[in-house]
Amino acid sequence: MDPGAELEALTAATPDAGGIASFVGKVRASGGVEALELSHYEPLTLPGMQELAAQAEQRFALMGLTMIHRIGTMGPGDPIVLVGAAARHRRDAILAVDFCMDHLKSAAWFWKREKRGGEWHWIEPRIEDHADLARWS
Amino acid sequence: MDPGAELEALTAATPDAGGIASFVGKVRASGGVEALELSHYEPLTLPGMQELAAQAEQRFALMGLTMIHRIGTMGPGDPIVLVGAAARHRRDAILAVDFCMDHLKSAAWFWKREKRGGEWHWIEPRIEDHADLARWS
Amino acid sequence: MAVTILFLGPLRDLAGAETLEVEAPLDWSGLLGSVGEEVADQLQQERVNVACAGRVLADKTALKAKDGDEVALLPPVSGG
Amino acid sequence: MAVTILFLGPLRDLAGAETLEVEAPLDWSGLLGSVGEEVADQLQQERVNVACAGRVLADKTALKAKDGDEVALLPPVSGG
Predict the structure, then answer these.
(1) What per-residue confidence (pLDDT) applies to D80?
(2) Chain A: nearest CA to B129, how far in angstroms?
(3) Residue C77 is assigned to a structural domain of this protein
(4) How far apart are CA B16 and CA A32, in angstroms?
(5) How do residues D27-73 score in pLDDT, each as one tens digit?
(6) B1 touches chain A (CB under 8 A)
(7) Is residue D46 part of a domain?
(8) Which end of chain C is more exposed for a tag (fewer CB within 10 A), N or C?
(9) Nearest CB neighbour to B111, from listed D8, D51, D70
(10) Contact at 8 Å (CB) between A84 and A65?
(11) Could you tell me where the beta strands, DSSP code E, fall in A70-132?
(12) Mean pLDDT value across residues A104-121
């Protein structure tokens, strides 16, 4: 995934937007994480993301929405997830990114584990992630 | 201003960040705006933006912040303003972008006018822009 | 034909396998009896979901998997 | 030496000029008397600010500009 190219494509596809908001989540370069692995369950994951995109488009006045979540093994510095939203007004774009990220973090069908000191550890969402998600309901 | 290159530079400068949020505001390609002109008052504008950046860094746990606002005459599709924020946790990054944009829109020393049908018209902040700003105080 | 049980995320480690083939039909008690004690304990927690044939069950104890169905065991997610 | 009055944004159109040189010292009533009726009307609105020598005045009616100072008239802003 090339976040810059994806955002450029979204910008080009939405000439009438007044702005593009985005978030790129990546593997931290320090902190001892040697690798990150994201797994999914294909029959649920993609339909779930499509439903999430539909919800975002219903809630916010968007002109375009890009949502990419990688799976597989990634190394320090690698991008994991990208959300980009184009809208007439900036707060629709910013809020759509916030909304989609909260859902991708703790309500989409992905499982994450980290390799530290040669050992894999499964990661559960933080308490804050659930609180962030609850803001939207 | 090349938003993609700026975000890439911010990403490269903050290897320990878990994510980068951004907003790029641009001149809409349609809607009849032929040109947009942004003017400023140098003795106040840059110090004001530096003070805004300091406030954002105080409020949010940031690892990096990029804030660029162009002046002069721009055409349809051109970027006007970019805010990028790198943070350990995504909501600090997203909120910092939201905060800086609200202030750049209606509390920074810029004046904007649009050319429509060959005539220049000064733009005042929208009521919503003032309401957005008031959220932070 | 049979029912395929698929272990996702950390449940894969607990099960020591990615999949398990069992005879159809498969209901909730049959599932609990097939997956080993550790996974069965997890399954009984509210935060673990079960999907059958590509749909998450609103009530997992109502599971009725038939020949050819895939039953996915879904622990709490963590994306991004 | 003198005081330079600088018209920003839409005030430039109202004034019909970018700058105006006036004799020092310059106080609030001197400013109102120098800039023409239209700009003076605007200046008396709360939403118009005045900066002197690079600082926005908390109380613009307390203006005391001296030789060499720049007095900037700042209408409501609109960035982004």
Answers:
(1) 85
(2) 10
(3) no
(4) 11
(5) 999 999 999 999 999 999 999 999 999 999 999 999 999 999 999 99
(6) no
(7) yes
(8) N
(9) D8
(10) yes
(11) 72-74, 79-87, 110-116, 119-123
(12) 95
